[in-house]
Amino acid sequence: MRQSDISKVRSLDLFRDMSDESFEILIHGAFLMSFPAGSDLITEGENSDFLHILIEGSVELFAGWSGHETVMVTLQPVATFILAATIRDAPYLMSARTVSKSSVVLLPSSNVRDVLKQDGTFSNVLLQEMAQCYRAVIKNTKNLKLRSSVERLANYLLRCHRRAGNTPEFDLLVEKKKLASTMGMTPENLSRAIKALKAHGVEISGSKVHLTDVAALERFADPTPLIDQADY
Amino acid sequence: MRQSDISKVRSLDLFRDMSDESFEILIHGAFLMSFPAGSDLITEGENSDFLHILIEGSVELFAGWSGHETVMVTLQPVATFILAATIRDAPYLMSARTVSKSSVVLLPSSNVRDVLKQDGTFSNVLLQEMAQCYRAVIKNTKNLKLRSSVERLANYLLRCHRRAGNTPEFDLLVEKKKLASTMGMTPENLSRAIKALKAHGVEISGSKVHLTDVAALERFADPTPLIDQADY
DNA sequence: CGTTCAATTGATCAGCGTCAAACTAGGTGG
DNA sequence: CCACCTAGTTTGACGCTGATCAATTGAACG
C-alpha cells in the first residue's frame, strides 16, 4: 500500500483515535484494491480473512437461498462490511459485490482481532460501530414486518428526500431492480407502488424523483425515527 | 441487591472475566427484579436507563407501528437485551414484556458505559456479544425475505428439534399466536402452514410436536447454517 | 444503428390476511 | 369438583397484496 493510501485509511473515523502502535499492527499486510462495477468481493459461507472498508463507489450486500437471492443493503462510502464475521472469526452471512467502480481497503481479520486484544479504545470504537449496525438491521426488520410495500417505498423516498437536503427533486442512487429487492418486492411491484404514490404527490421518471407534495407523502408514510432515522 | 444475587450475576459469561474493580462499578445501583407474566418492561422510544439481563423466565421483544405490532424475538435465559441502546445511549427500538414469570437484572446503563471506558476486556466481551446479536438479526432477515411462511415454519421446527436433542417429539415453548407473529404471519396462517407440513411428516396437537419423518422435513425445509444455526 | 438489459404494463395466479364462526383449553369462582 | 368464562386455536369463505409470466417500451452503450 502506498503511503498516501495509508494516510487516507488512518484518517477514517474508525482509526483516527487509535495509537500509532495499534495502527501499525492493523495496517500490516493490508491492501487497497479497485474493482469495476459488478465484481464479486465475497461469497456467503466463506471465512472472513479480511475486514472490508468501502472507500469509494458502492457495494451491495446480498444473500441467497434455494435458488433466489435478495439484496440486504447497499453501502455508500465510508462503510465497513463483514465486521461481525471478522470479530467472531465466523463465516460471512452475506455476499458482496460492487455496484459501481469501487475502492476497498482490505485489513487482515487477524490483525483486527490482534489489536482488539490490546487496545481498549479500538474495542470501543468497533463496539459503537457494531451497535449502530445492529440497530440499522433491527430498523430494517421492523420496516419489513410492519409495513406494506407501498408504505416502505413512501418512507424510503422520504429518507432520500431528507438525505438530499430536503429538496423536492433528487435522484435515486440505486437502480430500481436492486431497490425493489432491497425493499423485499419485485421490480414489477415497485413500478406499481410508484404509480400508487402518485396520489400522494410522487412523480418518478427514470431516476429523477419529484415530490410535489411532501406533506401529503408524510401523512401517508407516517415515518418514525424508530424505523426511519439513521442515527437514532 | 442481596449478596447471593450479586454472585449469580458475577458468574454470568458476560461478567466472569472482568476485574473485581470493574464489576464493582457495574453492579453499583443494580436491581434484581421479579415480574409476573405479561409485565411491560420497556417501551420503544424510551431512553435506555438500564441494561437488562434475563435470568429466569422468558421475555419477548416486540415493536409496533401504525396500530399493529410484531414480535421480533423471544428470549430465554441467560440473555441481555437492549444492549445496543445502552452502548449507544440511544432510545430503545423495541419494547419488552415478560411472557412468563421472570427475573431480570437491571444494570444502570451509565455504569456499563463507565466500565467500557476503562476496561478493554469488558469491551471485547460486549463486542463479541453484540456481533453475535447482529448476526442473529441478519439470519432472521434472510429467513423473512428468502422463505415462504411454510418454509419458515419447517425450518423453525427443525431448529426446535435439534435444540431438543434430536428427539422426534418435543414441545413448542411459545404460544402459537406469538410464534406466528415472530415468523411474520397470522395465527390463522400458521394453522394452515402446520397442515401443509403434514405431508412432510409433521404432526402437531396443542403444543406437542411429533416429527414422523425428519428426513422428509429436512428435504422440504432445506436448512442452512447461514440462516438456521445459532452459533455460526 | 443495433444490441442488450432495465423498466413498464397487462393478465393471471398464488400466498397470505381478514372476517366470522365454531371449537378447545386453561383458569376462576361458586 | 364442576360450570363457566375467557382467550387461544382452528376452520371456512372471501378479498387483497404482491408474485409470476409474457410482451412491450425505453434507455444506455458499443
Give a quick set of tags describing it.
homodimer; 232 residues; Jelly Rolls; 2 domains; 11 helices; DNA-binding
Give the arrangement of secondary structure elements.
The structure is a homodimer of 232-residue chains.
Chain A: H1 3-10, H2 13-16, H3 20-27, E1 31-35, E2 40-42, E3 50-65, E4 68-75, E5 79-81, H4 83-88, E6 95-108, H5 109-118, H6 120-146, H7 149-163, E7 169-171, H8 176-182, H9 187-196, E8 202-205, E9 208-211, H10 214-221, H11 225-228
Antiparallel strand pairs in A: 1-6, 2-6, 3-4, 3-5, 3-6, 7-9, 8-9
Helix pairs in contact in A: 3-5, 7-10
Chain A binds a DNA duplex (30 and 30 nucleotides) through helix 9.
What does this structure look like?
2 copies of one chain form a homodimer. By secondary structure, chain A is of the alpha+beta class. The first copy, chain A, folds into 2 domains: 3-144, Jelly Rolls (Sandwich), CATH 2.60.120.10; 147-228, Winged helix-like DNA-binding domain superfamily/Winged helix DNA-binding domain (Arc Repressor Mutant, subunit A). The first copy, chain A, contains 11 helices and 9 strands. In chain A, the strands form 2 sheets. In chain A, strands 1, 2, 3, 4, 5 and 6 form a 6-stranded antiparallel beta sheet that branches. The first copy, chain A, is elongated, with a radius of gyration of 19 Å. The model of chain A has no long low-confidence stretch (mean pLDDT 96).
